[in-house]
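Q: How do we represent a protein-ligand complex in a form that can be generated token by token?
A: Start from the inputs.
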Amino acid sequence: MAGQKGKQTTLGNFLGEKKNGGNKAAETAGNIRSYFGNRKDKKDNSNDKETEATETAVGDKRKRPESANQKDDNDETNKKFKADKEKTKEELEKDEELKETKKPKEELEEEDEEIKEAEEQEKEQNREQQEDKTAAHVMACFSTADTKSKLGMTWKEGDDVPYSVLCKTFEACEATTKRLEITEYLVTLFVEVIKKKPTDLLSTLYMCINKLCPDYEGLELGIGESLLMKAVAESTGRTLKVIQKDYHKTGDLGTVAKNSKSSQSTLFKPKRLTVTHVFKTLTKIAEVKGNSAQANKVGHIKGLLVACEDNEAKYLIRQLEGKLRIGLAEQTVLSALAHSIVLSKPESAKMKTEQKEQKLTYAVDLVKSVYNQLPSYNMILPALLEHPLDELKERCKMRAGIPLKPMLAHPTKSLTEVLDRFEGHPFTCEFKYDGERAQIHKLPDGSTKIYSRNSEDMSIRYPDVVEKLKKWIKPTTSSFILDCEAVAWDREKKCILPFQVLSTRKRKDVKEEEITVQVAIFAFDCLYMNGESLLQESLRTRREKLLEGFQETENEFFFAQHMDTDNIEDIQTFLDVSIKKNCEGLMVKIYDGEEASYEPSKRSRNWLKVKKDYLGTGGVGDSMDLVVVGAFLGKGKRTNVYGSFLLGCYDPNSGDYQTVCKLGTGFSDENLKDFYETLKNYTIPTVPRYYQIGDNPEAPDVWFEPKVVWEVKCADLSISPRYMAGVGLVDETRGISLRFPRFIRIRDDKEAEDSTTNEQIVEFYESQSNGHD
Ligand SMILES: Nc1ncnc2c1ncn2[C@@H]1O[C@H](COP(=O)(O)OP(=O)(O)OP(=O)(O)O)[C@@H](O)[C@H]1O
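Then emit the structure tokens for the protein with adenosine-5'-triphosphate bound:
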């Protein structure tokens, strides 16, 4: 038997040849069967078990009521299974033959490769944990005393936390790129707040992540710059023209506000700002609605600006803009919170370094895992402050009504890659529906909510779904959280419509009677049921709960089509059927055991996505979602609109955007007109300091705020001195760029911070050079 690489080639070829339908496919079929023969052989020698699994899969499907189309799929699948069962004996004989002829050297090589791959995967999974451990080690030896004086933390116990202290901490964080140093500053701040004014911890923490409340409550800052400029001008006595000119020069309205304040003489000294006062005022500003909203907002902003001293105006304006950009990733804030809870307890001073380190590591793991299940500081903070750490899990359980960050999948570019990754694990394949992620909650009081992948409340966008969902729920199901995809649906033809149709559905102020694009819900996971979290259960158990607790309802609600097999021909057939049914491809997921648990917010290797478009291309396994950071004015046919665009990816560690390509293809004339109209609202006078643009001699004609995300496909990726994506990760000075990028669609379900990260770009680049497929 050939080594791992050989196996990939054989299968890769097979898939290509199968498409052409030539005789070669039949010739190579023997190789494929032997490949799977050996794979099965490793897992389990029993033919019975294989047959049993096949029967269960088919049985599973028969249990469910099906629409006409789905029934066709299952019939096709069943026929395929029958043919396959007959092949099994032949396969096993081939296995035996191959076992005897196998050369020990090749066996060793194969094992080496497997070990290497497993190590790679483990390395990646452990990286974040390792960073947490290093931080725990450093923090165990850390004394907040030095940092405290550096940050001027001298306010009196019981007094409100001064805003100046928070701004000094921001300044210190902004001045470094080292995550550990940032953690030290935050821990110092949080420990001090916990000791002197614990009730201010919540507002302090929200200010650090520049939010006002949990995402699902939907209250956001992000005041337009013209309003902010007006407020700065009016509160400092400078003209709007001068403010605009300064902004054009610096590209940072915060700095303009700070400089404007320092050149202003004040007759009386207003009361110093406190964190809680600023937080409450920011909340009021975000809440203001109605006719005089603008004037009201300006009034509040001016009130704050007048009281600002030193660098406070700079951070206040940035907070109002909704972009603090001082390199504070939420994960760092969570770690710092966990550390400070431990370090603020008097007993921590008595602990030996090793013991403290263990406690810190435990606290970080605990706080992160609880936050993943209940992403609400409003609920977690009181439990952390008022009760022992050990009780946190019990006190802060996931519940219906609080959306979790969904589990995400890893891209692959061949079925072979999927089978290699999942070798030895039972896995299941599901259709990858092409619509919008929908997390559906039913609370014990009977109310229902639908949340987007960003935890936005979408219940108002889907009033028709909310109205009908009681029909799908069996009487035994009182509360639940379902993970689903909402797709555009043709009620007459009873089939899925392409994503483009869904994107024409209204997103705001949707009235049931005006809905033109109908949706159907495809449920693929059940995360919570009747008061119990199912996250730790295997996918098999979660799917059982899903099938038990709900019923398919024509034109409205379906279980995701699935197939449990490791036979590549079946998977290929299933993939083909999924594409015929307007799906994007398959999701392949580990089915049993610990790795089959649900991992909120993680892009996990236990869920793999296989998109038809990327199979066998030898290029990149997925499209990317990139932020439009600039544009070049069009010429010729594209005069009066932007002709091409500069795109960037996101670096979650620094909060920066790194340029990744210039994009000029894939657009219709209509697209270009629309984009010109939308994007011109986001133009900014100069390149912001949080854009890493490198030495590209071709600067765009206009720069944009990071607001618009587009899905882009490319042929491959290469190292380039002109772009900055992943700079420092693969090459010290050069970044990675997309070659032959093409526009696919707008991703208005994604914020700029949800775009493809610099590390994902590096992964795409590296997987391409590993030569999979
Ligand atoms: N059966 C399924 N299981 C899980 N996710 C599914 C399924 N069918 C469709 N999806 C959709 O596919 C997405 C998984 O792909 P991924 O994790 O990469 O999200 P993404 O970044 O939005 O990428 P994509 O552009 O591929 O949707 C999910 O967010 C979900 O919306």
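The chain is about 45% helix and 15% strand. Residues 408-409, 430, 432-433, 437, 453, 485, 524, 560, 587, 609 surround adenosine-5'-triphosphate (CB under 6 Å).
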